[in-house]
Design a protein that fits this description.
Helices cover 34% and strands 16% of the residues. The protein is an alpha/beta fold and 358 residues long. Helix 1 runs parallel beside helix 11, helix 6 packs across helix 7 and helix 6 packs antiparallel against helix 11. The longest helix has 22 residues. It is globular. The site of nicotinamide-adenine-dinucleotide has 31 residues, from helix 6 and helix 7.
Length: 358
């Protein structure tokens, strides 16, 4: 353990989050490992080089040197091919790696003799809950989606009774009530909205109701979920039925937030142009699934599209809009992952699917 060197690298724009905080660095140092941080890592988020130094980390400027000596490399995003070529044999790179779309990257890592853990592939079990970066980031994405929608709508969220008249609360419709969707519901409720939600997994109904939102019931026949708890893809027929049943909820909503994903596959298209034309001008749609293909017809990554007066937001990296807290949660997840890894070893069954380049 004492000779183990953990290196934390800066990210490349547009990524705003980072993989380490001084607090987590200190905890790692206490475990007995060496922590090296690239100079300037957290400056933009208020985590100064001095605070990393005080936490017991070493600061280094030369990325080449950092990469060449690292036993474990921590980051939010994937390495470049040049960076991979500098890794030691047996070095372990840990980040989000989108293994389903990154074949060449994985081959390059393998060729270099490096190992990699993709955080998307950790099992979503109770044991791994504290290491689950997908969940921690999705939760912040759900929050951020509501905040972004609040900036774009011409309405206020809560009901207001004033001498000048009464303002009715906004209506928010959330499609997909997994980790992100549930946090979006909770955030919208806290702001005073009337919230309705739908998800294909029937178990979600109770969770939606416990947050004080209404659950839209649609009879889609056989659906269920995988043994890992993920939604299964719908048939064409089921999808058409869902779209038809959701059209009214969309038309009545001031804000629609879509978060529907199917693990390892392109996100399902749920909001069609014809549904959008029935919405009131000035309404806002946030397509939180935009990075995996999008749930909304016509949404574009990094753009706001206006169709029939409806704004469709395709904001990339929503957790990155609250990067300081997102980094704290991400670094916390990594701490728990490393703690498990360093005490149990990489042969532990937990890493069976996550260790994608061994
Ligand atoms: P996700 O990001 O893969 O998908 C988001 C939501 O979209 C899911 O709730 C899914 O059911 C829904 N969805 C898919 N197709 C849809 C459609 N056509 N219409 C409407 N909704 C649709 O999911 P997630 O948020 O990462 O969570 C997936 C599951 O994993 C959930 O059951 C969650 O409770 C579970 N989970 C468990 C743990 C744990 O036990 N440690 C941790 C995190 C998540």
């Amino acid at each position: 353990l004492l000779t183990m060197k953990i290196v934390v690298l800066k990210e490349s724009p547009p990524e705003t989050r980072i993989a380490m905080t001084p607090q987590v660095a200190q905890k790692l140092v206490k475990l007995g490992v060496e922590v090296e941080v690239e100079v300037g890592l957290g400056e933009a988020l208020g985590f100064t080089d001095a605070s990393f130094f005080e936490a017991g980390a070493t600061l280094k400027k030369d990325r080449r040197e950092l990469l060449q000596s690292a036993d474990i490399i921590l980051r939010v995003q994937k390495p470049t091919s040049n960076e991979i070529s500098l890794l030691k044999k047996g070095a372990l790179y840990i980040s989000f790696l989108n293994p389903f779309e990154e074949g060449p990257l994985l081959s390059a890592l393998k060729k270099q003799g490096a190992l990699a853990i993709s955080l998307q592939m950790l099992p979503r079990t109770t044991l791994a809950q504290k290491m689950d970066a997908l969940s921690s980031q999705a939760s912040l994405a759900g929050y951020a989606a509501v905040i972004e929608a609040a900036k774009e709508t011409y309405k206020v969220f809560p009901m207001m009774t004033t001498p000048a008249g009464t303002i009715s609360p906004v209506k928010v419709f959330v499609v997909g009530a997994g980790v992100a969707g549930l946090q979006a519901i909770a955030t919208a409720k806290r702001l005073g909205a009337i919230v309705e939600a739908f998800d294909t997994r029937p178990v979600v109904e109770e969770q939606v109701k416990s947050l004080g939102a209404k659950f839209l019931k649609i009879d889609l026949g056989e659906i269920g979920q995988t043994k890992e708890g993920y939604a299964k893809p719908l048939t064409e027929e089921q999808l058409a039925k869902q779209q038809e049943a959701m059209a009214k909820s969309c038309a009545e909503a001031d804000i629609v937030i879509t978060t529907a994903q199917v693990f390892g596959k392109k996100a399902p298209l749920l909001i069609t142009q014809s549904m959008i034309t029935k919405m009131s001008p000035g309404s806002v749609i946030v397509d939180l699934a935009i990075e995996s293909g999008g749930n909304v017809q016509g949404s574009k990554l990094g753009e706001t599209i206006v169709t029939h007066g409806v704004k469709i937001l395709g904001i990339p990296n929503l957790p990155g809009t609250v990067a300081q807290d997102a980094s704290k949660m991400y670094a916390g997840n990594l701490y728990h992952l490393l703690h498990h890894l360093l005490t149990k070893g990489k042969e532990d069954p937990l890493f069976k699917d996550a260790l994608i380049c061994s």
